[in-house]
Amino acid sequence: MLVGNKADLRHLRAVPTEEARSFSERENMFFMETSALDATNVEQAFTHVLTQIYRVMSRKALDGTGDPMSLPKGQTIDIGNKDDVTAVKSSGCCSG
Q1: Which of 25, 31, 55, 96 has the fewest CB atoms nearer than 10 Å to its CB?
Q2: Which InterPro entries match (predicted)?
Q3: DSSP assignments along 31-54, one per residue
Q4: What mean pLDDT do residues 86-91 have?
């Protein structure tokens, strides 16, 4: 996965969007631009990477290529929700 951050600062862009997209396609990677400042695509980027991890782990478990003992059983990982992100941002951690 290739993530271009600070998408809100287009005038300071070091790598053009199309160049990054072409690179990610050549390398067989997912590409997305994000902005932590205005929360554009941040949640989607995390959701995408977690979904891909889940798919790979599930496939390994189903086809027997992974060690079944290494797969978590019945564990839940709490990654928070939008209210958590809003509370942190409003406290000033992400403002410039």
Answers
A1: 96
A2: Rab_GTPases_membrane_traffic (IPR050209), Small_GTPase (IPR001806)
A3: EEE-BTTTTBTHHHHHHHHHHHHH
A4: 62
